[in-house]
């Protein structure tokens, strides 16, 4: 009996590392957030409320081998309507002309993800910190995987240069933007393709 239990446990534990495949981003359990220093003294946070994407894990190893994400600029939310309107305006993101921000993974090496980030029609190479959260079968039998990406970009690299000088020195908005993305995906079935 103990031998049978050992075999069952071994199979279950082994199965958890065999969740390779293509995952659809689960928007209800994913967060795409950013933060910037305001007036050099506090941090203001924001998020993209609408986004879509897929990622792929290699069979057996669960190594991240592909990821593409797309954020809807018009969904920017900082909990201040006036500020959100300014961010969507042509002074910042110009949501009307450039409605999407996209990220496409090139490769993962260790705990770094290398990819291309496109904002306002400008594409730049970026390096983000990467962490694989693992895989699990949810109570409804669906296979899920989680991962995290974080890092910093200089918004001026993407033509976002609006700012105002402060009387005492410094500027209203930092040029450096911190990104934090927590992704949960659901393994796509063959009939989903």
Task: Describe the protein's architecture and organization.
With 193 residues, the chain is mainly beta. The protein is built from two helices and eleven strands. The chain has a single domain (19-192), classed as Beta Barrel (Lipocalin). The protein has an eight-stranded antiparallel barrel. The longest helix has 14 residues, at 2-15. Mean pLDDT is 88; it is low at 2-17.
How is the topology of this model organized?
Layout: H1 2-15, E1 21-25, E2 31-38, E3 42-48, E4 51-57, E5 64-72, E6 76-77, H2 81-88, E7 100-109, E8 112-119, E9 122-137, E10 143-154, E11 176-187
Antiparallel strand pairs: 1-4, 1-11, 2-3, 2-11, 3-6, 4-5, 5-7, 7-8, 8-9, 9-10, 10-11
**How many strands appear in the DSSP assignment?**
11
Q: Name the helicity range.
A: 10-25%
Task: Compute the CA-based radius of gyration.
Answer: 20 Å
Largest sheet: 8 strands, antiparallel, barrel
Q: What is the CATH C-level name? A: Mainly Beta
Low-confidence stretches: 2-17
Q: What share of residues are in beta strands?
A: over 45%
Give the termini distance in whole angstroms.
Answer: 42 Å
Features:
single chain; 193 residues; mainly beta; Lipocalin; 8-stranded antiparallel barrel; 2 helices; elongated
